[in-house]
Each structure stands twice: as structure tokens, then as C-alpha cells.
Amino acid sequence: MTDATATYTGPHGPKPKRRLSPTNIMLYGTLFVVAVYYLLPLYVMIVTSLKGMPEIRLGNVFAPPVEVTFEPWVKAWAEACTGINCDGLSRGFWNSVQILVPSVILSIAVASVNGYALANWKFKGSEVFFTILIFGAFIPYQVMIYPIVILLREAGEGISAVTGTNFRLMGSIWGLVIVHTIFGMPILTLLFRNYFTSVPEELFKAARVDGAGFWGIYFRIMLPMSLPIFVVAIILQVTGIWNDFLFGVIYTKPDTYPMTVQLNNIVNSVQGVKEYNVNMAATLLTGLVPLVIYFVSGKLFVRGIAAGAVKG
Amino acid sequence: MAVAESTEAEAQTERAPAKRPNRLFRNLNAKIASIPMVATALLIFVGCTAWTIYHSFTKSRLLPAPDKWVGLDQYERLWNTRRWLVSIENLAIYGICSLILSLVIGFTLAALLDRKIRGEAVFRTIFLYPFALSFIVTGLVWQWILNPQFGIQGVVQRWGWESFTFDPLNNADIVIYGILIAGIWQGSGFIMIIMLAGLRGIDEDIWKATRVEGIPAWKTYILVIIPMMRPIFVTALVLIASGIIKVYDLVVAQTSGGPGIASEVPAKYVIEKMFQAQNLGQGFAASTMMLLSVLIVLIPWAYLEFGGKRRD
């Protein structure tokens, strides 16, 4: 059960007989109704974000816009307020990008090397640490959050003292990058370990005979061979980190808040008149990155979450 | 597995004639590469968890106070706090409902998609896309759809059914079901994918045999297919359960715990006690209770899943 998608060979259910039999009508009818339920929120987000406020007050959430306006989008991106700051969701977007890029690179680099060591270079105790890592994935984050705050604060102060700078881990994006690397590790290590274990043994042996060492084999053989699994890992991490709220709210400060945190602050702020169209434009903007990744990557996204789900 | 074992054996024979090197330096590069994993496993997953559990027995307020030991005081106070009891009750309702609904909806959709229908990929894409979205986006969209004035309630009332009421987010008795609607929308597609992978793994001959015997399809599912998919159901169960305990962002976005404290959940209680109420001890005790509930689910599962393998 290492790769659930490998079994996607085609439908296996009983063959429907006639095209317009009552069973078929029931079948497609049910699927259609359920599909409407799933699509409804996306539709509501889009139509609401394209309406003006007067039209929203008169109509209902499901009515298509009579007069299409892109003003809510502009306002959500550049003018929406959180507290005293009124520079819109763009700040959160760029914060998220700044958090995302190093987090994805670091977490995948660390986890792929971990997985490689676990698959091909086992040492005494390596399986024990791996087991702890996998079970650690089930520990509620709330249990570890506070001690990590202390660790980040102490480590940041240590670095500052050694380098003579005013470096901070706690409250900066670098602390959050480390946290994402830590909590992404179990699932990614599992993903890479399972993949590297399936690489033919002969390749590894041949490279060993040729005198290649740990890093040589990793960079010259394993890395070029495993590009698909890297893409899966990137999809998994980009959506996961972009959608994170909990770590963002705890390990960063208001001026470095990621997009999800800022979005929540904009929409759920108690001050002022509620501008539903701006809120929905902001919500859609925040959801756009993972949605685009999802619709573009298709099967690879499924492969990523299935690999995450089914333990090897 | 085989790769790694033979490598180890190979490494040993290779080194046998030479002077016996220090055990610690054998396979040194792999050990260096595994430092992040070992550190995460020991320092974060074991160390931080133990730290929190220890401090849950102390009278920590604004700062951790490791020397002010108070025994089970924090737990006693926790279980006498109404807010915590409401949180637990909400988690239980949300947990049971979402467990049952996710499994039923996930399996039904997967079974429908498995019946050789046209446009399977389209339906699959529609059912899964909410899973790519964050809980913040999910919560905010459903907050808007369930808006009493403009959302579902308002629409039905404007159609002429004046006395129609459906306002879960402002009704303390049913608010948790309002959150449940959003949670199911976001997560059921994921369970569907896992179930579909399971259904695709079932031998075509089973279907042929039951067709020859003249057993109706629904009966085949209940009597043959579901019992065969037991491992898949167990995996899905563990995944749903570990997701339920983490419910936090969805509540923050959709209701902020309101009306009053009616939709509070344990994860939110912990974060608020730690970072807003400056009552660390309560936060530690509550998070330890969360850990305990995870262990209650995890240990029997781990025992069933891995218990047999470990012995040999």
C-alpha cells in the first residue's frame, strides 16, 4: 500500500446496461446534485466578488451580478484594512510568498536527504528515529507549540550574541520557515523513503562499485531519477504551507502575517461596515494559489495526498 | 528494505579487512544527513511533548514555572471550566457526525464514481477541489452562505416562505452543525479519493462472481466489498480522527467561537489560554488532554496495524 494511485487501473464496478435506465438516471442525478453542492461556494464567492454593495443588499447570495464590477478585487488587493494598516491583502500575499519559497526548499531538501539515508544508508537506530517521526505526526500541534516558542527565542538570541547582530527567529519569517520544515518532515520523509526504496538495487550497487559516496549517489543518481516525486512533494508543501493559519498566527508578528491570517483579520474585523463583496474577493484571492495548483497539477495532487494518507 | 540491508552487509564486508573503525564513524555521512530528523524526533516530538506534559502539573501563569509543582490542580480546574466542557461537547458532536458523514459520503461517492460512468474525472475534480482550500477560506465562504439576511435563509424567505428559519451560526444550539456543513464540504472529497483507491484495488473477478450469482449491486457492496475494504476504512478513520482533534482555523474563521462560547473547541481553548489569557498552566493541561485523546485512538490502531509485524 505504498502508492494508492498505482491501483488506478480503471473502474471496476458492475457494468451499467442501458444508457437511460432508471438506475442510470438515479446515478447521474445523484452525482449532479452533489456536484452542485460542492460547486456552490465557489460560485457564490465569484458572483459576490463581482457585485457592488447596493446590489448585494437588494439581492441574494446566489443571484448572478447584474452589473459586473472589479472594484471589490482592487479594494481587497490594495486597500482593505486590518487594524490601522490599509494596504490591502497584497502585503499578506507577499509575506506568504516570502515564507513559502524558503519553507518549501528547506523542507524538501531536508526530507529528501532524510528519506535517502533511511532507504539506502541505514544505520543503527535510524528506524527508531523514523518511527518516532511518523508517530510524532499524530501529536496535536498544540502540545508542542509553546516549547518551540521558547526554543526559537533562545536560538535567535544565541545567534544574535554570536554574530553581534539583532537577529530574531521568533516573530520573523525564519522561525516560521523552521517550524514548517519540522512539521513537514514526517510526511515528506515517508514519501521520499518509500520512493527511494523502490529504486532498483543494482543502480545503487553499481554506483558504489564505481566509488560514489553518500552525496555523490544522491546528487548524480537519485536526484535526477526522482523528479516526479519532487514535484509531488512541492505540490503537497505549497498547498499545505499556503493554507497554514495556526503557525502563521503564532510564530510571526502582524507585519509578517501570512495571507490566511491577514484574510481572517480583514473579514472578521468588527470595525466599520461589512463589505461582503470585498471580503469574498479577498477570500477568493487567498484561495487562488492552491486552486490553480490543484487544477493544473490534477493527478499529481491526488498522488501527493494519497501518499500522505496511506502509510507505507 | 532489501536494498538497505544488503548495503549494510556490503559496507561491513568492505571494511572487515581494514583496522576496525570507530562504530560511531561508520556510515558517517548518513548520520550527519540525518541530524535534522534525529533532532526533530528527539527534541521536538519527544522533548517538547514531555516538557508540556511536565509543565501541565505546575502553576505556570505568564511564564513557565517548573518549580511550582501543583499536582493535578490544573486538570481539576480545567474540568470545572464551563468553556472547556462546552469545547469537549462540541468536539464530540462534531467528531461523531463528521466521522460518520465523511465515511458514508466518501464511500457513496466513490462507489458511484466506480460504476463506469461518463465524466468520472470531472466529478472527481469537483468533489476534491475544496480539499485544496484552507479552513480559513472554507469558514469564511460558509459564513457568507449561511448569512441570515442574504444567504440561504434570506433567499428562501424572499421566495415567500416567510417563517423559514435556518440560521445556525447565530443559534447556540445548532452552531456546531453549521461548522459541520463546512467541514464536510472541505474534507469529504479526500475520503472519497482514498475509498476510490480502495475500490480500484478490488479484483474484477469478485464482481463477475456476484453477477453470476445474481446478487444485486447494493448487496455486494454491503456484504462483500465493504468487509474487504476494512484496512482502507481503518486508514480513513484514523485520518478523519486525527483531523478532528486539530479543528481550529475553521471555527476561528466561521464563528470565532460564538455566539458566546457556543462553538468553542479544545484546540482554540489551548491557544487562547497560552497566548491571550496568560494562563500557561491551563493551556498545557488542556493540550495534554488533547494528546491523551489522540493516544486513545492511536494506540489500539498502532497495535493492530504494526503489533504483529514487530514481533518477528
UniProtKB/TrEMBL annotation, chain B:
Q: Which residues cross the membrane?
A: 32-54, 91-113, 125-145, 174-199, 220-245, 284-304
For this UniProt record, the keywords arranged alphabetically read as follows: Cell membrane, Membrane, Transmembrane, Transmembrane helix, Transport
Q: What biological-process terms (Gene Ontology) are attached? A: transmembrane transport
Q: Indicate the segments annotated as coiled coil, or none if absent.
A: none
**Residue span, ABC transmembrane type-1 domain:** 88-301
What does UniProt give as GO cellular component?
A: plasma membrane
Q: How does it sit in the membrane?
A: Multi-pass membrane protein
Q: Does the keyword Zinc apply?
A: no
Task: Reply yes or no: does the keyword Cell membrane apply.
Answer: yes
The family line of this record is: Belongs to the binding-protein-dependent transport system permease family.
Query: What is the name of this protein?
Result: ABC transporter permease subunit
Which species is the source of this protein?
Answer: Oceanomicrobium pacificus
